[in-house]
Amino acid sequence: MSKFAINIGQFCLPLAILLGTALDSGYRTVFMLAEILYIVMALILAFSPYPDQVTGPKKQEKAKHDFKPVANFYAAGFVAGTAAADNANNYAVDVVISASHAPAPKPEATSGAIH
Q1: Is the pLDDT of residue 89 over 80?
Q2: Are 29 and 20 in contact, with CB atoms under 8 Å apart?
Q3: pTM, rounded to two decimals
Protein backbone atom coordinates (compact mmCIF):
# COMPACT_ATOMS: atom_id res chain seq x y z
CA MET A 1 0.00 0.00 0.00
CA SER A 2 2.84 2.40 0.68
CA LYS A 3 4.23 1.90 -2.84
CA PHE A 4 0.74 2.45 -4.21
CA ALA A 5 0.44 5.72 -2.27
CA ILE A 6 3.86 6.86 -3.48
CA ASN A 7 2.91 6.12 -7.10
CA ILE A 8 -0.35 8.04 -6.74
CA GLY A 9 1.56 10.97 -5.23
CA GLN A 10 4.09 10.90 -8.07
CA PHE A 11 1.23 11.01 -10.53
CA CYS A 12 -0.82 13.70 -8.78
CA LEU A 13 1.93 16.13 -7.73
CA PRO A 14 2.92 17.22 -11.27
CA LEU A 15 -0.75 17.62 -12.15
CA ALA A 16 -1.33 19.72 -9.03
CA ILE A 17 1.70 21.89 -9.84
CA LEU A 18 0.41 22.40 -13.39
CA LEU A 19 -3.01 23.34 -12.00
CA GLY A 20 -1.39 25.71 -9.48
CA THR A 21 0.66 27.46 -12.14
CA ALA A 22 -2.36 27.67 -14.45
CA LEU A 23 -4.29 29.44 -11.66
CA ASP A 24 -1.29 31.70 -10.90
CA SER A 25 -0.96 30.25 -7.37
CA GLY A 26 2.56 28.86 -7.68
CA TYR A 27 4.27 25.94 -6.03
CA ARG A 28 3.86 27.18 -2.48
CA THR A 29 0.07 26.91 -2.54
CA VAL A 30 0.16 23.34 -3.86
CA PHE A 31 2.45 22.18 -1.06
CA MET A 32 0.43 24.05 1.60
CA LEU A 33 -2.74 22.33 0.36
CA ALA A 34 -0.95 18.97 0.52
CA GLU A 35 0.11 19.76 4.11
CA ILE A 36 -3.45 20.61 5.09
CA LEU A 37 -4.65 17.38 3.48
CA TYR A 38 -2.08 15.37 5.49
CA ILE A 39 -3.14 17.02 8.77
CA VAL A 40 -6.83 16.28 8.06
CA MET A 41 -6.02 12.65 7.24
CA ALA A 42 -3.94 12.31 10.42
CA LEU A 43 -6.80 13.65 12.53
CA ILE A 44 -9.27 11.27 10.91
CA LEU A 45 -6.95 8.33 11.53
CA ALA A 46 -6.24 9.39 15.11
CA PHE A 47 -9.90 9.36 16.10
CA SER A 48 -11.04 6.39 14.01
CA PRO A 49 -11.63 3.11 15.82
CA TYR A 50 -9.47 0.15 14.99
CA PRO A 51 -11.19 -2.61 13.08
CA ASP A 52 -11.93 -5.85 14.88
CA GLN A 53 -8.96 -8.14 14.97
CA VAL A 54 -9.35 -11.16 12.79
CA THR A 55 -8.39 -14.24 14.69
CA GLY A 56 -7.09 -17.29 12.96
CA PRO A 57 -8.59 -20.72 13.29
CA LYS A 58 -8.56 -22.23 16.72
CA LYS A 59 -5.51 -24.13 17.75
CA GLN A 60 -5.28 -27.16 15.57
CA GLU A 61 -4.58 -30.50 17.07
CA LYS A 62 -1.32 -32.03 16.06
CA ALA A 63 -1.56 -35.10 13.93
CA LYS A 64 -0.85 -38.18 15.95
CA HIS A 65 1.84 -40.35 14.46
CA ASP A 66 2.39 -43.86 15.65
CA PHE A 67 6.13 -44.08 15.19
CA LYS A 68 7.67 -47.31 16.37
CA PRO A 69 11.39 -47.48 16.99
CA VAL A 70 13.38 -49.74 14.70
CA ALA A 71 15.61 -52.13 16.59
CA ASN A 72 19.33 -51.67 15.92
CA PHE A 73 18.68 -48.96 13.33
CA TYR A 74 22.07 -47.29 13.74
CA ALA A 75 23.90 -50.59 14.02
CA ALA A 76 22.33 -51.76 10.75
CA GLY A 77 23.47 -48.57 9.03
CA PHE A 78 26.96 -48.98 10.38
CA VAL A 79 27.17 -52.58 9.20
CA ALA A 80 25.84 -51.67 5.74
CA GLY A 81 28.25 -48.76 5.43
CA THR A 82 31.19 -50.88 6.54
CA ALA A 83 30.28 -53.61 4.06
CA ALA A 84 30.02 -51.07 1.24
CA ALA A 85 33.41 -49.62 2.13
CA ASP A 86 34.96 -53.11 2.22
CA ASN A 87 33.47 -53.93 -1.17
CA ALA A 88 34.87 -50.71 -2.63
CA ASN A 89 38.30 -51.41 -1.17
CA ASN A 90 38.28 -54.99 -2.45
CA TYR A 91 37.28 -53.81 -5.92
CA ALA A 92 40.13 -51.29 -5.96
CA VAL A 93 42.60 -53.99 -4.89
CA ASP A 94 41.27 -56.38 -7.57
CA VAL A 95 41.71 -53.72 -10.26
CA VAL A 96 45.30 -53.03 -9.20
CA ILE A 97 46.17 -56.74 -9.00
CA SER A 98 44.62 -57.56 -12.38
CA ALA A 99 46.42 -54.63 -13.97
CA SER A 100 49.77 -55.75 -12.59
CA HIS A 101 49.27 -59.33 -13.87
CA ALA A 102 48.15 -58.26 -17.30
CA PRO A 103 50.29 -59.51 -20.14
CA ALA A 104 52.74 -57.04 -21.55
CA PRO A 105 51.64 -55.41 -24.79
CA LYS A 106 53.19 -56.88 -27.89
CA PRO A 107 55.56 -54.60 -29.75
CA GLU A 108 54.13 -53.43 -33.01
CA ALA A 109 55.88 -54.27 -36.18
CA THR A 110 57.21 -51.13 -37.71
CA SER A 111 58.00 -50.77 -41.32
CA GLY A 112 60.27 -47.87 -40.70
CA ALA A 113 57.57 -45.40 -41.64
CA ILE A 114 56.42 -42.92 -39.08
CA HIS A 115 52.74 -43.07 -38.51
Answers
A1: no
A2: yes
A3: 0.37
